[in-house]
Amino acid sequence: MSPLNSLFKNARLALTDAQTALDNFAESAVDLTVPTVRLGVTGLARSGKTVFISALVHNLIAGGRLPLLDAAGTGRLARAYLQPQPDDDVPRFNYEQHVETLTKERLWPDSTHQISQLRLTIEYESATFLSRQLGGGKLHLDIVDYPGEWLLDLVLLRQDFRQFSKEALKRAKARPDLSAEFLSTLARHQDKLHEEFSEDVARDLANTFTTYLSRCRDDENALSMLPPGRFLMPGDMKGTPALTFAPLDLGSTQVKPKAGTLLAIMERRYEAYRKHVVRPFFKNHFAKLDRQIVLVDALTAINAGPAALDDLSQALTEIMGAFRPGKSSWLSSILSRKINRILFAATKADHLRREDHEHLEKLLQQLVQQAINRAEFSGASVETLALASVRSTRQATVHHDGVETPALLGTPMPAETIGDIQFDGEEEAAIFPGDLPEDLSDLFAEEQDRTEAEDQTALKYVRFRPPKLERTAEGLTLSLPHIRLDRAMEFLLGDKLA
Ligand SMILES: Nc1nc2c(ncn2[C@@H]2O[C@H](COP(=O)(O)OP(=O)(O)O)[C@@H](O)[C@H]2O)c(=O)[nH]1
Ligand SMILES: [Mg+2]
Fold first, then answer.
1. Nearest CA to ligand 1 atom 14
2. Would the N or C end of the chain have less CB density within 10 A of its end CB?
3. Ligand 1 atom nearest to 147, measured from its CA
4. Which domain of life is it from (predicted)?
5. Is 111 exposed, middle or buried, given 0-12, 13-18 or 19+ CB atoms closer than 10 A?
């Protein structure tokens, strides 16, 4: 190649570089004017956050069936694609892997224990004539997935160590079957409160306290109110002193603890937890949200009984309080924007027959209304609905001895059982899921008041595998089926895509 030729080529290269740089600049300049919505997705562990986000993004990117999302239903959705998220210090939501697990392996994604984020950019055609003249619409949707446990920590900002201890011990004593080990450990160390601090004792207390909290979360108990939230969802704080404390039995003595004693250091660690864990979360993440969906696994709480429901109701009250904190509170002083739409969604509605979706929605509505009343909440628009982010069942009718019984058809997860039948994870089965009462008070009725007949109809909960994706006649694979995911999207985003 002649020197001249190569020079020429270099010049051209330089030109393309310049062009790209210019394009990038133009892109980012345009980008600044693109509206952004920060959507918080929360709920307690296993409420369905990961599945919800994966399904929402998948349906938008892959052109899923979303008739109730107006922009999609009226054919104005041009395309949606992932882009680098704005916050470089927050883990990225592992969308690709979760969708692969759901669609290819037909398994539920692994559970996550901390905050993560994902940016989806949506291009759409505006429905209004004027906006259309201004060119196509574009919206950045920043989705922030964070544990509901962290939200419940807001309670702690109002409590000093003494109050925290009192509340926590009151709850523990009310659940003796779950807390026995922790309470006996506490009693064993009671005479050491004013002795020199020992890390062994602190760890012993923290470990047994954590075990007690995690037993509260087991499916058969399904309790919700378990602060401090990081004990179950430590993220990268695991093993730090700020997470190695426990509530103590302080009686009514008001003496100030001597420096270096067990009591003094436990108190200091509790303060560290509030300062280094709770406050930064609210300030750096929570305060920046515009919209919020709270996922509620009401079915598991219903199955676990009145204690679990009561606890859920209290947790919802706390959550409501976080969304509209009192004017003089610390939280309201740092809120940079106001969340103006909040959706409470009962997840996993695909475990119920269609007739029961409405009942589930009504039950959640009653729980949320209680929370609104108790938290004296007002201001944002709040809605409730029952959904399944991923629908793993189909409605069916089973004919047997001339009787038609409505049922659900799906593939139970391997090792799931009903009575003495154990499923292998491959075979489809028809399940009769039982009925859901329409009124909350029926669920709160004391266990002994229930008749045997009512116990017979009690909800049967079988976990199903994610569905096999159907193919169209043209051989295209359809995206993940859902129940009312589009209605949730319309409430959360509809006005931004108008
Ligand atoms: N059938 C069904 N199960 C779901 C759905 N969403 C979540 N699940 C189940 O709930 C579990 C927890 O969901 P996940 O999204 O990981 O909860 P997270 O801890 O809140 O992120 C999953 O492993 C599934 O078994 C749904 O839409 N339908
Ligand atoms: Mg998750």
1. 48
2. N
3. 20
4. Bacteria
5. exposed
